[in-house]
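hi!! sorry for the late reply, been swamped w classes. u asked for the two structures so here they r. pasted raw, havent cleaned anything up. first the sequence of the first protein and right below it the tokens
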Amino acid sequence: MHDLQLFRSQLDSTAERLASRGFSLDKNAFRAIDVKRRDALTEVERLKADRNERSKDVGARKKAGEDTTDLQTAMRAMGDRIAELEASSEQLDVEFRDMLKGIPNLPHESVPIGKDEHGNVEVRREGAAATMNFAPKPHWDLGVDLGILDFERAAKVTGSRFAVYFGQGAKLERALVNFMLDTHTAEHGYMETLPPFLVNSDSLYGTGQLPKFAEDLFKCEGTDYWLTPTAEVPVTNLLRDETIDAEKLPVKLVAYTPCFRSEAGSHGRDVRGIIRQHQFQKVELVKFAHPEHSYAELDGLTHDAENILRKLELPFRTMALCTGDMGFGSAKTFDIEVWLPGQNSFKEISSCSNYDAFQARRAGIRFRGTKKNEFLHTLNGSGLAIGRTWVAIVENYQQADGSVTVPKVLQPYLNAEQITRQGLLT
């Protein structure tokens, strides 16, 4: 949600900032509603002042024994008109808020201007791709050949865009969850939390998924419960409608959840393998920060996510997203992309964003400032997407004989140095 006063006082410059991210704000419609609302409020104030004066006149005339029937009739009519105008202004406020619900967040001034992903800017690149004296395979071949990944049985159980892990494949997924949680809590200072995996509509509105992105979600029929699309939703809403002492900021939380997305509009994108699934697992980092420090906190959160890749010794690059490629609620985003030799490309593995007060305003999350309560800033990012990290390990650590070497930091979690051929019925 946006600051309505900002739109009213700086409409032209606000429209320009929104245009940089490809959104066209209907300034005429906005001004028309605003003029109607202001006119209604002005008329209400005038009528109330007039009614007060007439009330005094009625009192004086009653004391003088004069008939006040006509005056009281006129005052009742004024009262009806005031109620009508107040209802109208309230309805116009609702129209304002409905209009604001569909407007994306304003980009931070440091965000590069661009129309799409081609306008993104590389910030840094770390790690070198492993030298392979053979043609690297993609994970959808490697995993199936090793007997640790099965798409056909998943499709039988559920449908397309689901996967089953077996043996060391399943254990690798679990190991990654534990490794990431251990690192973020012990080394990066986050508090671990395990939130519900079902969320209500208020929670999805608070983080910006509703009402605009309902088609991307799965809803439980006959209830107000939705499967969480990311831990960002339940974790951010843990502080909904709360006011935090400023000295307690930043609040840093990390959570593991399964995530569920319909992937509406993604037809033809990453159709092979487990890059884009209806169900996947993720470790999410969430911060609640003071507005003066939130961009330093964004840098820190991004570094924390990158550090997982450093420990796994996986090559990656970090991109500053341009205005035209950012998510709906983000004010600034860094995408971390891991190198996948089996696909000869970088693939996003974490998206780290500062939402400024966009989510806090929708969810009513404030902090106690020096003079008044203010909206804090919310930040989040994957730390990391488990399935995509699984893919990166399998593809980067594959060997010529089809086995996969386990990264050193994960060997204690798997109690193994190598992933070799196995299978359900072999």
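now the second protein. again sequence first, tokens right under
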Amino acid sequence: MSTESLTTSHMSTDVSTNRADAAAPRRGYWSRWASVPREFAFLILTMPIAIAGLVVLATTFFTGLGLIFIVFGILIVVAALFIARGFGTLELVRLRWAARREIARPAWERADRDQGFWRTMFAPFVDGHYWLYLLHGLVINPIISVVTWSITVAWTAIALGGTTGWIWQRYIPDEGRGFWLYDVVLDFLLPGNTLQIDDRVGESVFEFVVGILFLATLPFVLRTLTLLHDVVARGVLGAWRSEALEVEVAQLAASRGAAVQAEDASLRRLERDIHDGPQQRLVRLQMDLAAIERKLEHDPEAARGLLGEARDQARETLDELRALSRGFAPPILQDRGLAAGLESLASRSPVPVTVEIDLTDAALPAPIERNAYFIAAELLTNVVKHAEASAVRLRVGTRDEGAAGQWIDVWVTDNGRGGASLAPGHGLAGLDERVRGLRGMLVIDSPTGGPTTIGAHVPFVPVEASAAE
């Protein structure tokens, strides 16, 4: 199923990225050379960019600091902070280009900054990220860049010069050369040796061996130097963990609000359905019974006719109550679990339903089981009411996404007329609110003419894990 595959792939992107990044050190030696050009380009441009940033930031910041007692100086300091933000962002972009895992950036735009020009202008003074970016541009990055750039240039020069020196060194005159490096190393390793080696040949062989060693280790050196920049940027230029917690708290609050709204909407719909359906029929049934009681002795035939109508009213009321009761968790769900509950739900559907259940050994929490049952019931009800389908497929499964946690997927596919959408006020909109209230997502693929595929994906914590916590 294409939609299911695409959704599963999309939801596991972050986990796959983390796994790939974690697995990178275990790659083969020759595959490391694929990243050498990018890492070399990153490192060779590091010092020019760092020096340019140092000059611009030092000039701007200290000029503004010297004029801090006038308004113009304050504006210059603010400009320096914004420039530091630009250089820091450039460093993050360059690291991403060098095939490093993306670093979460600070949340520069916040609600409390949308309060006029001056508040927005002076917001950097109270934002610690701006000062960290300034520290990175003025002190940290220039120091690290000088070291990593020097090592990169020296290591690459030795690797390339040593391996190719035997080609071009013959054209360089060696008159006045005081010593040969190979001779010094040979005397150190073999004191008192009497080996007779041509100086030019010995020097070329020695430099070639050294060049091979430096060339063989070049991918590791470039990766280490790039990783040093990555670690520093991740600690100084990245978003703080407290900011991630703030975002998560806001998402939880939004999810809780969506869940409350979905529950309120469900209760209102249930109240309206009971009022418009069974309640009206029970009133009619009461009136029919009263009429039967009045005519029972004087007009038995009319009473018998009213009795048949009352029986029909009772049967229709019972059918409506059964339909409405599907909004409550059935006893089979509590006694025998989600799989049995879904099998029972499918057997009651007027449209034939093919059920596929693939639940892992991880015990589902009771709220997740109930919500998965309600989601499946709502989707099957929508198929019966609107899809004009002759066959339905219900697939429910769980999957473990590692760091992303465990998920339960509820898929319903029908061969109906299609055209389903999240229109406000419709059943799928309420279902979407319920799923978002569970911190999940609802995916709809319903082209005109069908088929329709709807998937609900909800994260959960297994009962054993939640009990251990």
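hope this helps!! also noticed smth abt the second:
The chain has three domains: 29-171+178-239, 258-320, 332-468.
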